[in-house]
Specification:
The complex is a heterodimer of chains A (265) and B (357).
Chain A (H helix, E strand, L loop, with lengths): L1 E5 L2 E3 L25 E3 L1 H16 L4 E7 L5 H9 L4 E5 L9 H15 L3 E5 L10 H9 L3 E5 L1 E4 L3 E7 L3 E8 L2 E5 L11 H7 L3 E5 L12 H4 L2 E8 L7 E3 L3 H14 L4
Parallel strand pairs in A: 1-4, 1-6, 4-5, 5-12, 6-11, 7-11
Antiparallel strand pairs in A: 2-3, 8-9, 9-10
Helix pairs in contact in A: 2-5, 3-4
Chain B lengths: L2 E5 L12 H12 L1 E7 L4 H9 L4 E6 L8 H16 L3 E5 L2 H14 L2 E6 L1 E3 L6 E6 L4 E7 L4 E5 L22 E5 L4 H4 L1 E8 L12 E5 L9 H11 L2 E4 L1 H5 L20 E5 L5 H7 L4 E6 L12 E4 L2 H23 L22
Parallel strand pairs in B: 1-2, 1-4, 2-3, 3-10, 4-9, 5-9, 12-13, 12-14, 14-15, 15-16
Antiparallel strand pairs in B: 6-7, 7-8
Classes of the chains: A alpha/beta (265), B alpha/beta (357).
The structure holds flavin-adenine dinucleotide (FAD) and adenosine monophosphate (AMP).
Chain lengths: 265, 357
C-alpha cells in the first residue's frame, strides 16, 4: 500500500517573530529565506499517522512530498527521521508565490506520478492556514476526501475516519484511493531517535522540477496567482487598553468595574 | 455585477439552515444578485428567510440517484453547474470545515482564485477585495481576487446579518424556487456516513455562547478548573479550555478552543492561565472583548487582550467572584424600595466596606 504524506515547510512560530515586522518579503509573500523554517506541526501528525498505519501491516511504503524552496529539504529530512521511507522535493524557481490553485496542481501532479492508495495531510498549514489544499488535491485527483479526521482506520479497500462535528461524532467510510487530512487529536508524534536521524540521511530524496511534472512555468507562481495581496498592515497593538498589576483584590475590583462600565455583565 | 452564488449550509444534526446563511447573503448583496443554493428540499419558511436577507433566487439541489448524498458533494455539483450557466462571478461559503471543502472543490472546477477566513468582502474594480487577519491577528491582509470567478469562504462570525432594505414582498415565493437535479461523480459516491452519535449537552456550548471563560495549563489542576466553572456560572458563560488543559484531562475535548477546536466570537472572552499560543489565538482573537489573567507579564495573550491582569489566577478569580457577588447584592439593594430594613442587619451597601476575603 502506498501512502503519500504532504508536508509543508513553514516559518517557525516558536521564534515568535511573527509579531515583529519581517514575516513578509517585498513582494508580500511569506519570507521563507529570512525566517527560520521547519516542518509544519500539523503535518507531523500526518506523518505520525502514516507510521501508525505502517506498524499494523507489512506492505506500507511512505513517501513524503513537499513543494517549497531549497531550504525545504530540512523539512523532508525531519519527516524521514520521523519514519517516512522516501521523499520528493518539488523545487523550481518559477513556483515562488504560488497560490492554493497552483500548489494543489503541483502536489496533485507529484502524487499522481508517484501513485497512491492514500494521501495524508495536515488539517491546515501554520502559515497560510487555508485548510483547502487537501480537498483541492482530492478534486484534481478525482478521489474522495475526508477532512479533519480525529481517528483513522485503514481497511482493505476502505479507510474509515471519525470526526468531531461539535454536537455529534461522525464515522465516515471512504473508498480508496482517497485523501485524508488529520487533526492533532490523532496522536502525538514521537520524538525521532538519534539513530533514525542518522539513518534518514541514507534514504532516497528526489528533486522534481516543473518540467518533470509537465506543468508550464507560466501557469504557476506569483504571476499566475488569481489572488493578489494588495496590502499587509500590522494590526495596531493598542491592546491592552488596561493593564492591571498589583494585589488581587484591587485588580478584581477594577476588572469588575470595567466589565460593568462596558455593559459586559 | 452578476449573480453571486451563496452555498447554504445545513446543520449536520438538525438539518436546519445554518445561521451563517443570512450573513453570507448580507455580503452577497454588495457584490451582485444573491442566489441561494441549498442541498435537499427547502421549507416555505426557510425560503422566506433567505429572501428576507436578499436571495433573489433559491436553488434547491437534489441527487435522485443518491438520496443520502453528502451535502458538500451536492453543493459542489450544483455550484459548478450554476456558475457556468449563470456566469456567476463570485461563490460565497462559510469558512467552516464543510464550507471550506466545498469552496476548495468549486475553485478547482472553476479554475477560480480562492480565499478562506475572510472577515470582510467588498466589490472592487478588478474583482472582489477580501480582508483577512493572519498570524494570530498580527497582520491584516487585503487581497484582490482576479479572473472570471472568485471563491470566498467567509468567517461569518465577524459579519453582521442585515435584512435587505427593500425586500420585494413575495419576491421569492415557493414558486420561484428552482429545483436542480445533479448526478454525483463516482468519487463523491465513495464516501458515506456510517454512524452519527449525538453528544450529551450540559453547559452552554462554547461555539454559540456570548461569554466564554477559558482556562489553560496555568489553572494548575483539574480541581482548579472548578474555579473556572464558578466564574463561568457567575457570568452565565460557557467553559472553554486550551489544548494543554484538555490534554491533561482538566476540561473536556469539546471545550477546546483554537485552530483545532472551536472558533468562537463571544462578546466577552476571559482567558485564565493561558499563554496565548498562535493555535489558541486562532480560535478566540475575534472576541469583541478579551480579558486575560496570567502571572507572566510577557505572555503573548496580553498583546491581544483589552484588559490584562498580571497576577495569580488563584487569587484574582476568588476576588473577582467576591466582587461580582458584592455588586449583585448592591444592585438588589438598589432595586429594593427605600427604607426597607437590611435583612442581614449590616450597614447599607453604599457605605459598606469592600468585603474582605
Ligand atoms: C497542530 C497543533 C494544533 C493546536 N491546536 C490548538 C488549539 O486548537 N487550541 C489550543 O488551545 N491549543 C492548540 N495547540 C496547542 C498550543 O500550541 C499550546 O500548546 C496551547 O494552547 C497552550 O496551552 P496553555 O496556554 O494552556 O498552556 P501554556 O502555554 O503552558 O500557558 C500557561 C500559562 O499560564 C500561566 N500561569 C501559570 N500559573 C498561573 C497562575 N497561578 N496564575 C495565572 N497564570 C498562570 C503561565 O504564565 C502561562 O502563560 C495546538 C498545537 C498544535 C501542535
Ligand atoms: N507547499 C506544500 N507542500 C506540501 N504540502 C502542502 C503544501 N501546502 C499545503 N500542503 C498540505 O496541505 C495541508 C493544508 O494546507 P493549507 O491548505 O495551506 O492550510 C498541509 O497541512 C499540508 O499537508
Amino acid at each position: 500500500m502506498k501512502l503519500v504524506v504532504l508536508v509543508k515547510h513553514v516559518p517557525d512560530e516558536a521564534a515568535d517573530r511573527l509579531f515583529t515586522a519581517g514575516v513578509f518579503a517585498a513582494d508580500l509573500t511569506v519570507d521563507r529565506d529570512g525566517l527560520s523554517c521547519r516542518l509544519s506541526e500539523p503535518d507531523e501528525y500526518a506523518v505520525e499517522q502514516a507510521m501508525r498505519i505502517a506498524r499494523r501491516r507489512m506492505d506500507v511504503q511512505i513517501c513524503v512530498v513537499t513543494m517549497g524552496p531549497a531550504g525545504a529539504v530540512r523539512t523532508l529530512a525531519r519527516a524521514l527521521a520521523l519514519g517516512a521511507d522516501e521523499a520528493v522535493h518539488v523545487l523550481d524557481d518559477a513556483l515562488h508565490g504560488s497560490d492554493a490553485q497552483a500548489t494543489s496542481r503541483v502536489l496533485a501532479a507529484a502524487v499522481e506520478r508517484l501513485g497512491f492508495d492514500l494521501v495524508l495531510c495536515g488539517t491546515a498549514s501554520t502559515d497560510s492556514g487555508m485548510s483547502v489544499v487537501p480537498a483541492m488535491v482530492a478534486e484534481r485527483l478525482g478521489v474522495p476526501a475526508a477532512c479533519e479526521a480525529d481517528t483513522v482506520w485503514v481497511g482493505e479497500d476502505e479507510v474509515m475516519v471519525r470526526r468531531d462535528e461539535g454536537t455529534a461524532v461522525v464515522d465516515v467510510a471512504v473508498g480508496m484511493p482517497a485523501v485524508v487530512s488529520v487533526t492533532d487529536r490523532i496522536g502525538e508524534p514521537r520524538y525521532p531517535a538519534f539513530r533514525s536521524i542518522v539513518e534518514a540521511r541514507q534514504k532516497t530524496l528526489r528533486t522534481w522540477s516543473l518540467k518533470d511534472l509537465r506543468i508550464p512555468a507560466a501557469e504557476v507562481g506569483l504571476g499566475a496567482s488569481a489572488t493578489v495581496v494588495r496590502s499587509v498592515t500590522p494590526c495596531a497593538e493598542q491592546r491592552p487598553a488596561l493593564l492591571v498589576e498589583g494585589e488581587a483584590r484591587g485588580a478584581a475590583a477594577r476588572l469588575a468595574a470595567y466589565l460593568t462600565e462596558h455593559q459586559l455583565i | 455585477m452578476g449573480p453571486v452564488l451563496v452555498l447554504v449550509d445545513r446543520d449536520g444534526g438538525s438539518g436546519a439552515v445554518h445561521a451563517s446563511a443570512p450573513r453570507l447573503l448580507t455580503l452577497a448583496r454588495r457584490l451582485g444578485e444573491p442566489v441561494a443554493v441549498l442541498p435537499h428540499p427547502a421549507g416555505a419558511a426557510e425560503v422566506r428567510r433567505l429572501a428576507r436577507y436578499g436571495a433573489e433566487r433559491v436553488c434547491v439541489v437534489e441527487a435522485p440517484e443518491t438520496p443520502d448524498a453528502d451535502p458538500v458533494a451536492l453543493a459542489v455539483a450544483a455550484a459548478g453547474e450554476l456558475a457556468w450557466q449563470m456566469g456567476a462571478s463570485v461563490v460565497l461559503t462559510a469558512s467552516t470545515r464543510t464550507g471550506r471543502e466545498a469552496a476548495a472543490r468549486v475553485a478547482v472546477r472553476l479554475g477560480a482564485g480562492i480565499v478562506t477566513a475572510a472577515s470582510d468582502v467588498r466589490p472592487g474594480p478588478d474583482g472582489p477585495v477580501t480582508v483577512q487577519e493572519v498570524c494570530g491577528g498580527a497582520y491584516r491582509v487585503e487581497s484582490v481576487v482576479r479572473g472570471q470567478a472568485a471563491v470566498i469562504a467567509v468567517d461569518t462570525g465577524s459579519v453582521p446579518a442585515d435584512a435587505a432594505a427593500d425586500p420585494v414582498p413575495g419576491q421569492v415565493e415557493e414558486s420561484a424556487v428552482e429545483r436542480l437535479f445533479v448526478r454525483l461523480p463516482e468519487a463523491a459516491r465513495r464516501a458515506r456516513v456510517v454512524a452519527r452519535t449525538r453528544k450529551p449537552a450540559c453547559r452552554p456550548a462554547v461555539s454559540c455562547a456570548s461569554v466564554v471563560v477559558a482556562g489553560g495549563r496555568g489553572v494548575g489542576s483539574a480541581a482548579g478548573f472548578g474555579l473556572i466553572e464558578q466564574v463561568a456560572d457567575a457570568l452565565g458563560a460557557a467553559v472553554g479550555g486550551t489544548h494543554g488543559a484538555a490534554d491533561l484531562g482538566w476540561c473536556p475535548h469539546d471545550a477546546l478552543i483554537g485552530q483545532t477546536g472551536a472558533v468562537v466570537h463571544p462578546k466577552l472572552y476571559v482567558a485564565c492561565g493561558i499563554s496565548g499560543s498562535v493555535h489558541h489565538r486562532a480560535g478566540m482573537q475575534h472576541a469583541s472583548t478579551i480579558v486575560a489573567i496570567d502571572k507572566d507579564p510577557s505572555a503573548p495573550i496580553f498583546r491581544i487582550a483589552d484588559v490584562g491582569i498580571v497576577g495569580d489566577l488563584h487569587q484574582v478569580l476568588p476576588a473577582l467572584l467576591n466582587e461580582l457577588a458584592r455588586r449583585r447584592a448592591d444592585m438588589q439593594a438598589d432595586a429594593a424600595p427605600a427604607g426597607t430594613p437590611d435583612p442581614t442587619g449590616e450597614s447599607t451597601p453604599d457605605t459598606a466596606p469592600v468585603a474582605a476575603d
